[in-house]
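Is it possible to get an amino acid sequence alongside its tokenized fold?
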Amino acid sequence: MTTPPGWYPDPGSAYKPKSRAQERWWDGSAWSGQTRTRGAVRGPLVAGIVGGLVLVAALLVGSVLVFGAGVGSGASDEAGTGPAPESPPRDDGSGGSGELPEEEGGPGEEGEVPASGVDLPVLDGWRHDPLAPMVTTGEYTCPGSESERCLRGSSVIVVAGTDTGSAEDAAKSDIGRFAKTAYSKGTYGGITSHEAVASEKTTVAGEDGYRVRWKIVNRTKPDAYVESLAFPHPSGSGEMLLLRSGFDIHRAAPPLKDMDRLAEGVKEGPEAGESGGVPGEAV
């Protein structure tokens, strides 16, 4: 089903807790540059009044897209820049340089829905989002937009697409898209280069998974580490999940080891809709 033109929660600012009131115009095929501040009455419940499931899906997309993330002590703030290559980098974890290609997609695109029945641990200094299996830390003013707020570290579990294949295929196909949406041009000036620092099998909640971790260089500092970790749902449903993590490379950011600790602490949790979670029918 094609999503009709209209105002939807901005997918380019949603990982910033204080930016959820911003909306962006969707022209029916792509996001435009037009944004507006959503009125007080247009909270999450408006989805049940205007637009039904399309707006609910769009709201959920908005809750997982933007990071200001980072690694802590020992991480370098140095980053090289250089001309972009003629061809875009591969998004399969093999590394590369140059800005990542523009991503297509719109409100409610498959693969952007927070997972249900699974949850993340809450480490010291982190907070848990009550609406999704997501933890965040270190809110600050975005380097490329003084009106928006970013995060030094964020991790969220979302549902992968239905045709992702193996965990390895899912992780490799997701990392480039995730990196671009997590560290967008609007907040960090765009990614100028990336290096694959990990591409390996791992175990999450007792399931065989696969992680791809990149170190990215942003046009506007800080640089960052991003990771897409795919694994089957521990319930045995066969559903493929993605644990997406983004950490700034900054002294105020959490240590990179927290990214591993979050993955190691993933466990089965309450179904969405329980304990104040997101209603499962919104998916």
